[in-house]
From TrEMBL, chain A:
It holds the Pfam family Amidohydro_2. GO terms for molecular function: carboxy-lyase activity; hydrolase activity. Keywords: Hydrolase, Lyase. One of its GO terms (cellular component) is cytoplasm. Residues 33-350 form the Amidohydrolase-related domain. It comes from Salicibibacter cibarius. SUPFAM superfamilies: Metallo-dependent hydrolases. This is Amidohydrolase. One of its GO terms (biological process) is secondary metabolic process.
TrEMBL record, chain B:
CDD domains: Rieske. Keywords: 2Fe-2S, Iron, Iron-sulfur, Metal-binding. GO terms for molecular function: 2 iron, 2 sulfur cluster binding; metal ion binding; monooxygenase activity; oxidoreductase activity, acting on paired donors, with incorporation or reduction of molecular oxygen. Residues 3-116 form the Rieske domain. PROSITE patterns: RIESKE (PS51296). It comes from the Bacteria. Gene3D superfamilies: Rieske [2Fe-2S] iron-sulphur domain (2.102.10.10). This is Rieske (2Fe-2S) protein.
Amino acid sequence: MAESKKKRPIIDMDIHERVTYDELLPYLDNPWQRYIKDTNWVQEKHLPYPILGAAGLDRADAKVPDGRPAGNDLSFMQQQLLDDVGHEAGILTGAGDPSPSSMNGWYEMAVALATAYNDWQIENWLEKDDRLYGSVHIAAQDPASAVREIERVGSHPKMVQVLLPIDDRPWGDPYYHPIFEAAERHNLMIGMHHQEPPNYYGKFPRYFVEWHSVMPNTHMIQISSMIFNGVFEKYPNLKLAMIEAGFTYIPAFMKKMDQQYKVLRHEVPWVKRMPSDTVKDHVRVTTQPVDELTKDEFLKFIELMDSDEIVCFSTDYPHWDYDSPFRALPPLGEELEQKIFAENARNLYPKLPTKVGKVTQ
Amino acid sequence: MKEVVCKKEELSPGNIMSTNLGPIPIVLCRTPDGEFYAFTDKCVHQGAAMSEGVVCGAPAPTDTPGEYHYVKEGEILRCPWHGIEYDIKNEGRMLVDPNRKLGNFNVSFEGDDVIVSTRK
Ligand code: FES
């Protein structure tokens, strides 16, 4: 990629804002506030190893200059990311802590945290920068409460998706369908971001490098679960954004699902379309973390997908495996670059603004 | 091109600083033995500013799984983004791929002045 910053519209599908528990207190009632204040409660974490980036989870240069953790300050994010890169839009995906949907038990606390988080997000980010769009956080373990939360904040003009964790119940399960129904009602898409715990019903591998190498596995489980459970037949306007597992697994996975469907479809008669067609119409995946392809390799993957509308760009700012919009992808030609960097995301989220003005270069 | 970029005492051993040689952003490194090295302030991977990175050592390659030997303390510059490691004392070469390296500059001294210049 050329060294100079190329001016183009960028819709970044994965930006992490971070809250501290202290900041959530004003958005919580008692007893939840007291649990946090009196006992310094923080959510249990799962990852058994350090993240071996230069500064752990985050880019070393993304720490807020006053010492607060990366992603905690809007003006610093504006300066380092939104203004510098020139984002047209960015979608906030939270920082994983608190992650209400990943709480084991104590659903009542999870529900309170999700509600507080959404209010905090709206007030401190979505309503303070035109470019930022948000994800509705829910306590998915309790679908009835999740539906209530989607009803409560889902019609906010800047909420564009419901964020679901990748956890130990694959998302095609009818248990979760009321969440999809509520999302569809509010024109929200479903976003899934790679998250702890990473392996469906599995344990962690021995090393972080193993875990980070196999993230697509869990995404494949979720996509096939939703397809073969008939979610997209039942909710034809619903779309799924699979965030932060790259995209190169998609062509082989489409082929595999189609082949399986041809011979085993009698098990799932409610599935009426070839899985690859459902992927093309309903599933979008992000480039990050990039697999560092040459132009020819990249184009080959696009050709094998038989669609240039599936892949969308994301930075994952401020995390250590951030992808630069100027350097992460090879040059792909103007038309494809416009789709990957902006148009595919714009078509995915109906609540994003339509393009204004002409593209300059 | 040649320029005085700082005084020796402005950069203590084991530290790095950002500076410029004309229009070129530079990362100036001082290893624990007091030597100075200068490189382009841009990671060859995705272009992060190396002067925002971390000075550290690195585990040496081993033939025995489960074994760790931490070496070169203060001589490795680790990128602030994806953490690629460059060997300061070995011309800024990448540890994982010594064929790739940061751009190099000469460092010389006049009295207390540290001078960075382009290589001839
Ligand atoms: S930009 Fe330096 S390691 Fe990626």
